[in-house]
Amino acid sequence: MIYNRWSTSHIEPKLRVDFWRDASEKVKTPITPHVLVPRDFEAKLTTRGLGNLALNHVQVLTPHDVQSTRSDLSRTEQPCLLVELYLQGSADVTQRNRSIRVVPGEPFVLDGRREYRLDHRHPVSMLALAVPFAALARHEGNVDKLIAQHHPNNPAVHLLAAQMKLLSTWPITPEAAEFHRLSDLLIGTVQAVLDGATDDESKGALKERSFLKRRLQQLIAQAYADPTLAPQVVSAKLGISVRTLHARLAGDGTSFGAELMAHRLDRSYQLLRTTRRNAVTIAEISRRCGFVSAAHFSRCFRARFGVAPSDVMRCG
């Protein structure tokens, strides 16, 4: 690893904020600090270069705010994804109209190509990993889902935090050949975190679709006998539009009509098998199951089960 250190302790008090701003640019995270009393500003910065990555340890003893402005972005030589991890202290984080409060041990992501703000009410110690977007390839598209968000409690997030902590305190300088291996290791973990955004989104969407389908089936079970039952009625009870209902069912390879027909035919089959022979007619069963025509019912029944309703009734 390649080490560099900056400290405001030897800088004239009135120049410390500008000194810190210049140091931040050198470690791939150009920012503008805002300090209530600039002469009291005390900070240390240690950067460890890992190939094309930078792992920065920031220690600021003075309450302050940090802002990435348009001017700062214009000074960025290589756009980076920023993975931030507080070791001590906390911050209010804002980017793209999203705001979260982060605490020690909770990694979060910022898009280094966009403006952001970190508000620190107390002294802080934090790690910042700068990963060039060029190293993230196809994973870059998931960044927007994760910026300024609380991350799920999954192994990739915990592994990334552990790797950042370990490398920030590693006492021995690795061989030059190992730089690339360490860089690849960190990039791979960051990519796993970004992939998790898609996985979590997919799981959430799957859970939502499963819930919708169960509610749809419950509503159909309650009203299938009504021959006028329509998507408009069901979608209103589900609290969604008809278009959304059709779109979500289509995503599962089904439709409202298919779900309704399947329930009506399954129920009619059950009635044909369990109703005492000659106690009720096939026409009556078809009516009870929401069919307006016994002939239509018979055609649909045969297409579904391969036999006529009368054959099932005789067997029953």
Write the layout of secondary structure elements.
Elements: E1 2-7, H1 16-26, E2 32-34, E3 43-50, E4 53-60, E5 64-68, H2 70-74, E6 80-88, E7 91-95, E8 98-102, E9 108-111, E10 116-120, E11 124-132, H3 143-146, H4 155-169, H5 176-223, H6 231-238, H7 242-251, H8 256-274, H9 282-288, H10 294-305, H11 309-315
Antiparallel strand pairs: 1-3, 2-5, 3-4, 4-11, 5-10, 6-9, 6-11, 7-8, 7-10
Helix pairs in contact: 4-5, 6-7, 8-11
CATH architecture label of the largest domain: Sandwich
Strand order of the largest sheet: 1-3-4-11-6-9
In whole angstroms, how far apart are the ends? Answer: 80 Å
The chain-level mean pLDDT equals: 87
Unreliable residue runs: none
Please provide the count of β strands.
11
Instruction: Please give the radius of gyration in angstroms.
Output: 31 Å
Order of helices and strands: EHEEEEHEEEEEEHHHHHHHHH
Main beta sheet, described?
6 strands, antiparallel
Number of helices: 11
Question: Any idea of the CATH topology of the largest domain?
Answer: Jelly Rolls
- The amount of helix comes to 40-55%
Task: Name the structural class.
Answer: alpha+beta
CATH superfamily of the largest domain: Jelly Rolls
Give the overall silhouette: elongated
Beta-strand percent range:
15-25%
Question: What number of structural domains do the residues give?
Answer: 2
CATH class of the largest domain: Mainly Beta
